[in-house]
Amino acid sequence: MESKSRDITNEPGKAAPFVSVVIPTYGRPEVLADTIRYLLAQDYPRYEIIVVDQTEETAAARRAPVFDDAQVSYVTIRERGPQAAKNFGIGRARGDIILTVDDDIIPEPDLIAQHVKNYDDPKIGAVGGRVFSPGEGETDHRTIGVVKPNGIVVGNYTSRRKKPIYTVFGCNFSFRKAAFETVGQYDTRYIGNFVREETDLCARIIKAGYTIIFEPGARVIHLRAPSGGCRVDNDLLWQFYFLHNNTLFFLSHMKRWFLPFFLFEHLRRSFVYFYHHGKEPAMLLFLIRGMYLGVRTYRTGVVDTALLDRYLAAAERSR
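The structure assignment produced for this chain is given below.
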């Protein structure tokens, strides 16, 4: 395939911005290869694809010919977590615009172009695109990408409406590299299921004075591959990490007078889960410990891995 990194102009005397597409991946070589094939067919003239693989055994992932394309850079790292992979990939990126996608998407051929067109406005620091599950149709939701006072995100990323938003779906998210360098890297303190890692970055981009826009023309189908990735299959454990991460996000970015709404919602969530899943006291304690660990992470600036391990071990013994 001919390289698409040549300069062209969208307007007289103006070259199209160079875009770096960063794909974190773990344990999905076949679907990853398909995603790269789709991305290589983009109708945008200037871009590169950077794959950051965190799989322990990576040899099979590189058998597909797409990895030999001149536009594709393939690197491996040992550190786990999508934030670490994206931070590493962005550090290698040559683009003025960074587009982060998951390794299990089907993008429209104009995905990159639909993102890039918004950056003619210097106030736009980031763009979120539409995300569909297979077979899902578009909607007309007016509320898109907001964080409610109780700390719960309302996504509605299938909406046809274009408007400023607060947060994005991380599998279809672009931003200016300059904005990223201003606000700092993805925060690796969001752990487990990594909920709120992209919302945290969005909050910092907005605090830096930028606007984030929802672009309904930037469309992907998110396949949600049944294996690999950063999923947490144990539902109780998923709730624990959700509570940790949401508590960390709330304390980092939201107004303190919203705290009663936050506590009510998250304690309610814990008690509802407790009631519907066996009514074991150890289960409720484990969920509340997730919130406590989030407070501790916020106050100390780091995840207390020793305390986390103790909580996980105690939960395992109680099963």
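Interim note for the steering committee: The chain is about 35% helix and 20% strand. The longest helix spans residues 281-300.
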